[in-house]
Design goal:
alpha+beta; seven-stranded antiparallel sheet
């Protein structure tokens, strides 16, 4: 089994609609998030997608639309851990938010997506060829193709995932990225407030009003997600995982993880023992 990490997904920064094809590689990747919309078409794999707090099973073909600022990852299972192809499409939140009346309804639909949408097999098959065509299309054609795809998706049934919070603040999104990149160091409230040049009281209010949780609760969620990823994919000792997630002792980490998930780190890792054979 190929246990190496897939190559990082890179995009041309001068394009509004960015597309990447990932062929014949494992699709497991670090928990991460973008400040833009992401459409992921997965072909020839089977496993689970993690979108925020939600988990969905997929097989053979999977199509998911993820809202900005939502952490996500994919985890495929043997013998399907290497996907035939993964198409990743990213575009800015306000790409369709100009003064073109015909696009207003589509942008309004996108803005209303809470955490993410997963579409059924029939929908994925209908937009499959258009998604594949994006990669070689000119920048202008990419935009028109994307509009055609989104128009189809807007009218299609989908499973919606709720995050329980909004992501309206650009500066709050910057704080979220700041925390995600420093899970092991656990930045303080004051450091995060300084990062976006606001008071600690303002940042506290943003977390409560925008995210529906406290600053400490959000940081705990990020540490838990990081720990889950490492436990599922690595053979490192529990004590090392604890250190990489910002815990000074394995005992404290064990207590934290069980409180967060209802399972010990060892029991959680046991679910993924097939990956390490």
């Amino acid at each position: 089994m190929n246990t190496g990490k897939p190559a990082p997904v890179r995009f041309a920064l001068n394009q509004s609609v960015r597309v990447k094809h990932i062929a014949e590689q494992g699709v497991l990747f670090e928990w991460h998030q973008h400040d833009c919309f992401e459409l992921i078409l997965t072909l020839g794999a089977r496993g689970r997608g993690f979108i925020g707090e939600a988990i969905h099973e997929f097989a053979d073909i999977d199509l998911a639309l993820i809202a900005p600022g939502v952490s996500h990852t994919w985890d495929c299972q043997v013998p399907y851990e290497t996907a035939e192809l993964v198409v990743v499409v990213l575009w800015p939140k306000a790409l369709l938010g100009g003064r073109i009346p015909e696009l207003a309804a589509m942008q309004h639909w996108l803005d209303g997506i809470d955490s993410g949408l997963v579409f059924n097999r029939e929908t994925a098959e209908r937009v499959r060829e258009s998604c594949l065509a994006l990669h070689a299309a000119s920048p202008l054609r990419r935009i028109t193709l994307l509009c055609e795809i989104l128009d189809e998706l807007q009218a299609s049934p989908a499973i919606g995932f709720q995050s329980g919070y909004s992501r309206n603040s650009e500066r709050l999104a910057s704080v979220q990225a700041f925390i995600a990149n420093r899970v092991a160091e656990q930045p303080s409230l004051a450091e995060c407030a300084s990062h976006v040049n606001v008071s600690t009281a303002t940042l506290k209010r943003w977390f409560q009003n925008e995210l529906g949780c406290s600053f400490s609760q959000y940081c705990a969620l990020q540490r838990r997600q990081r720990a889950q990823h490492l436990l599922a994919t690595e053979r490192r000792p529990i004590s090392v995982v604890a250190q990489q997630c910002g815990f000074s002792s394995a005992a404290y980490f064990n207590q934290f993880f069980k409180t967060q998930t209802g399972m010990t780190p060892t029991a959680y890792r046991r679910q993924f023992s097939w990956r390490k054979r």
